[in-house]
Design a protein that fits this description.
Layout (H helix, E strand, L loop, with lengths): L2 E8 L9 E8 L4 H15 L17 H6 L1 H6 L10 H13 L8 E2 L15
Antiparallel strand pairs: 1-2, 2-3
Helix pairs in contact: 1-4
């Protein structure tokens, strides 16, 4: 069985709007530390750390510098719009950067079905 983990996007600090989304990812390596190291290597190769983008409230645009560094990714993923990226786009970019490291080629975003079970009133 392959190793799976979640990438969480959004405000995890607890001091803001606290909205987050988790994405299930499959990995060819079985250690979260190896995944994190591969991402760091990918950042050096690409010259961009996507986690430093979209840090302000309701700011979902890539900077011109980020667009330049991600030109290959954007060509390969024409559905990703730099002027309005989604949480899923953000995760796809993170994965793409991590996969630039030869030590981790093969990281995949899992597209699993979701069953909504209600609970609207649980979140205030």
């Amino acid at each position: 069985m392959e190793f799976q983990f979640y990438l969480e996007v959004g405000d995890t600090s607890g001091d803001g709007h606290e909205k987050t989304t988790k994405f299930l990812v499959s990995s060819p390596v079985s250690c979260i530390k190896e995944v994190e190291e591969a991402y760091k290597k990918g950042v050096k190769i690409v010259g961009l750390d996507i986690t430093k983008e979209c840090e302000e409230y309701e700011y979902n645009k890539l900077t011109p510098k980020a667009c330049k560094k991600l030109s290959k990714f954007l060509q390969e993923n024409p559905d990703v719009r730099p002027e309005g990226i989604t949480p899923e786009d953000f995760v796809k970019i993170w994965i793409w950067i991590a996969n630039q490291s030869n030590s981790l080629a093969g990281l995949l975003l899992d597209d699993l079905p979701t069953i909504s079970v209600g609970g609207y009133g649980l979140f205030s």
